Every structure is written in structure tokens, then in C-alpha cells.
Amino acid sequence: MALRNKFIISGLALSTLMIFGCSNDAATELKATPPVAEKIPYLVKSPHGDRNDPYYWLRDDERKAPAMIAHLEAENAYYDAYRSSYADLTATVEQEIIGRIKQDDSSLPYVKGDYEYSTVYEAGKEYPIYQRRDLRVADAEPEVMLDVNELAQGQAFMQVSNMQVSPNQQLLAYMVDPTGRRQYELRIRDLTTGEDLPDRLQGLSSAIAWAKDNETLFVIENDPQTLLSTRVLKHNLGQSAAQAELVYEETDNTFYMYVSNTKDGEYITISLSQTVSSELHILDADTPNAEFTLFAPRERHLKYSADHIDGRWIIRTDMDAPNYQMMQVSHADIGDKANWQPLIAPSDDVFIQDYEVFTDYLALNERSDGLRRIRIVPWQDPAAAQVVAADEQAYVMSFERNVEQATDTLRYTYSSLTTPATIYAYDMTSGEQQQLKQTEVPNYNASLYSTERTWAKADDGTMVPVTLLYKKGFSKNGTAPLYQYAYGSYGSSSDPYFRSTVFSLVDRGFVYAIAHIRGGQEMGRQWYEDGKLLNKINTFTDFIDVTEHLVAAGYAHPDKVFAMGGSAGGLLMGAVANMAPQHYRGLMAHVPFVDVVTTMLDETIPLTTNEFDEWGNPKQKAYYDYMLSYSPYDQVSVQDYPAILVTTGLHDSQVQYFEPAKWVAKLREHKTDANPLMFKTNMTAGHGGSSGRFARMKEIAEEYAFILNLLEAK
């Protein structure tokens, strides 16, 4: 009987796909009968009790099972049939969004060694072209290093995730992902001929580090099942992949790993990190056959990173500093954190996000009052530190590419919800700055829009910052539709940088809101601590409280509230859907992490073991019970739900496709409303969706059209 039902699913997929040759009446009939997944009993075992998961069969680690594929295709066809009625609207929004992209654009060039490097996009092409110009030759024409459009020919997906030029500037090492699974292949191009060498290594992370001999590369091999970065390999040019030498293996499966060069190129580093701990190993780039040296042993609740300059290491660490402090140590004294000397004292109010090291200055990217700013600290007189000024209420400053240490010029990017990304050159000696480039946004006029910061009171009295965007002339009379976004996990902050896509909503009267909820790090490290582990529910209630605040304050109509989140933000959408469905007209959940307990019980799934300090380990009863209490899949109940659009990628390595597939199936079984529930699987992509720049815009247009169609139907 079970086998027969699976074939029924396959038949549904086939009949649904045929609908595009059918009449509108047939399409309407199909819309009324969404795909129904078969229920097959399956016990998910745990030390704290077993749970029946009747949709577990949708999981296939090989991503090939015919019944599973048929079900996903049936869902895709069901969604295609549904959205066919507003196809013109989708096309209009897509044209608007693409119309705000300068198609023939280029990045701000930067100089490294004898070359000036830049990235170019050509009109109509999906992918970047990486090029450089030889500064030793007068009026030299740019030479193409890598044209990703050529790599992508015949491929449904193509991503170049990392590129590193050799110290002698003659070779380019780059990492290619042709599936979206984030499992990379190392390729090496001879820049003097434009041809790739025969060297190929597969199953890698995106990390690359060059030794100074221009013949030795360090990369990281992933575990083939968990996809965890586990083994550092040393590859010598001309040797086979099998000859790559293992130089470091990480046995603690809660750590991520990365290899890179220090900015000055003097050292190769192995960086290991997990939620509450980190460790660094270093190797002189002149001696690639030597052993790596431990910078400082890992300790529970000690995180640090370091960069090298002039024989000393500059360290960012949370040692005795939840919001981080800056320290230093001479190269001769590495190996013991007791030798670290203080540079910049920690603050209760300012969180140190990032840093850049220069010969005469230390540049800090900090968070203060939820905003990212830049502070310049002279080595000779730290008390004379200066904060780079900003004029808007809500903005974000971040470091641009700074490749030289022996300079007094810092490049940084300024952006806000109304100001496109603008790159400045800041003279750290005089404080003077020069605008170098602002992203050109066709069909956009900044003078038509306003951004502001408001604060919502959470149910425990905490004030949650919210950044808003709307058209000038907007009146807080409670009639506007609202599009509310948040993430709220991993200490990842949702900064108010410019997003050209949202103007297709804002121009139609929407208020766009970013809720800086707990679980991020906008307000410092404690903001993160208050939104993870046994405090995770604060993330969800903060989001709901922001919605209630914006409606009560007149920013939005209570029946016109839409919300979006992706990945861990998709978990947020799932939790909100269960906890407060009445507040939302529609929810958009992209690659959502919704099956929390089952996933965290399974250590063969990528990311599980790395994230016990983020979500908790459900093998411990306190965490099991708490996670179960909010897990969206487990908490689906018989009730009305908002309209929901769910998306995923079949090859997703971060959140497996079967989580949203199961969640949608369970929602279909339990929901008591007639609101649309749509599920789209990108069959040729992973966590980030389509790889081409226009293909990504098409996906956003589909989401916005889904919202606008709901609004018009109200």
C-alpha cells in the first residue's frame, strides 16, 4: 500500500507538470487540491522519548529517491499553477528590480603588488569577470583572470567562492562549486597563459593559503558525510590529489576550520572556531615544510583572532571582555595567553566587531547603540582615537578591501536604507575623507525616501531597536502594509544597509522594517546571549512585540503585515507562525531551519555538532524539552495559519531540503484556513538560491509578487 501511494505522488507530479497545456479551469481546480504527502510511521529516537515523524521518508541523503523527487516536483508545479494568475505582476516586479541594477558595472579597483585588480559585470551577463591591469606597463589594458560566465556555460549553478593570487603574481588559485552544496574543487590558473593547470582537488572548503615558494598551497578537506572542515592538506603544484599531505586534523567535531594568509603575507594560519571557543595555529610562509605552531591553546569560553604586523600580533579577544578587547603579543612570546598585553580596554556599551591593522594606526569596526561605526586609534597616542562621523539616524559602516598595511588611508563603505553603498578613502592622519565610488542605482532617487530608528518594548521590558524605511510623506495613520525582516541567531546582526530590491514594495506604500531582535549582536554580546540556548524564545517574542509596536504606533495596518526570514530566520518565521499567526497576513520562510530537535539529534547532518552551543544538545533533557517547545515542525497544531511561501534548495548543505518539505507537509495536514501555502524547491541550487545575479532577482520578484497578490486579494 505504501509503495502504491508513492506512485500516486509521482502521478500527481506528472499531471501537475502537464497543467501548463491545460485550461484556466484546470489550473483553478489544481490550486484547490495541493499535493498531499504520504504518511509513513517512523520513530525518531532520543534518550528522552521517541517521537513519530510520518514525513521522515522525505529525507534522502543522496537526493535521488523517485518518490521524494516526485513530491518536490508536484509542489513546484502546484506553486507554478498558483502564481500563473499573477504572472504579469511578477514580470513587472522583476523588471523593476533588475532595472535598479547597473548591468555594466565594475568594482572600485585596488592595488596589490604590481597590479590593479577589479571585478566587472557586463550587460546581460549573470556572473562576474575578474581582471587586473599591469601597473608596470604604461596604459596597459586589463587582462581577464577569470570569467565566471565561461565557467558557467552548460551549468545550472556556478559559484566561485574564493580566489587567491600567488605571491609572484603568476598563478591564481580558485574554488569552484558547481552544485550549491558548498563542496569545492580547487583549480589553479597560470595567469601568464590563461590556462588551468591539471591540478584538481575536490571535496574542499573554500579556504586557500599560499606559501611564499609559489608552489605550495594549503586547503581544507571536508568530511564527505557531515561536510565538516576536518583536515588541512598541503598540496604541491604538479602532484596528484592523492599526494596531498595531511598537516593538521581536527578531531573535535564542534569546531569549524579555515586556512588563510596574514595580511602581510608572512604567515599561514589555521583558524579553528566554535560558538564559545577558538584556536589559532601559525606557520612561517617561507618554510611551508615546517610544523605549525600553536598560538594559544583553546579554552572553553575564550575566543580570539590575530593578525601580524612588524614582528607582533594584534589580537581581538573576549578574554575578560564579553564585548571584546584588543591585545598584542610579540612573535617571540606566542604560545601562552598570559603573555598578551592590553591595547584597547573593553567596554560595556561598545562591541568590537572587526579590526584592520596598519603601520601607524589600528582601525576598529564597532557597534554602539546598535549601529556599526569606525574608530581610528593611533598607535602612538591611543587616547587621540577618532570616530568617523555619520549624518543619518540609522546606517552601517564597514571595512572595504584594505590590502596594504603601510598606508595612512583606510577604505570603508557607508550605507543606509536610503544611501547606496558608498566607498570612502579616509586619511587617518588628517581625518579628511574622499568619496571614491557610490553604487549607481538606476531608477532610484534617494530624496523620495526616509529612514528612521524606533524602539519597541519587549514583553520583559527590553527595548528592541527597529530600523524603518518608507516614502517621504508617509503618515502614521495605521493604513500602510508592512514588510518586517529579522534574523536573530548566531550573533549575526541585521545591519540597515541599502537594499535596492525593497523599493518595489516601498514604492507601493509599504513600510520596510528591520527588527534587531535578540540573538543577533546589534546591542553587544549580551544581546546574543539573551537570544540563544535556553533564552531562544526571546528571539521569537521580540519579533512579535516589534510587530505589535509598529501596528500600535500607526506604522502598519493590522491586516497588512508581512514578514520574512531565511535559514535561522526561517526558524523565526516558523515559530512566529505557531505562536502568533493572527498578526500576519503572510510569511516568507526561505531555506528554513524548522525541524530543530530531529536535526540536532542527528550528528551526521552538517552543522549539527558545531551548533550545540547555539541551540543546545537535545541529548540533555533540559535542552531537549526547551527546543521541543519551540521547534516549528513539532509545534504545528490544528489552527489557522497565515499565507506562507516556503523556499529551499535541493543541494542545501546548511539546512537540508527535507526540513521545509516535512514542515509544509505537516502544515497542510493541520491548518484549518484557506490561505495559500506554497513550497518551491530549486532543484539545481543550495542554501543561497540561484547563483546568477539576475536569477536571484527573479526569486525575490516571485516573493514580492506573492505578497502583492495577497494584498490585492484582501
TrEMBL record:
Peptidase S9 prolyl oligopeptidase catalytic domain segment(s): 497-712
SUPFAM superfamilies: alpha/beta-Hydrolases (SSF53474), Peptidase/esterase 'gauge' domain (SSF50993)
Domain Peptidase S9A N-terminal span(s) in chain numbering: 35-438
Signal peptide residue numbers: 1-26
Keywords attached to this entry: Hydrolase, Protease, Serine protease, Signal
Pfam family, one: Peptidase_S9_N
Domain of life per record: Bacteria
Similarity field: Belongs to the peptidase S9A family.
Name by which UniProt lists this protein: S9 family peptidase
Origin species: Pseudidiomarina fusca
Lineage: Bacteria, Pseudomonadati, Pseudomonadota, Gammaproteobacteria, Alteromonadales
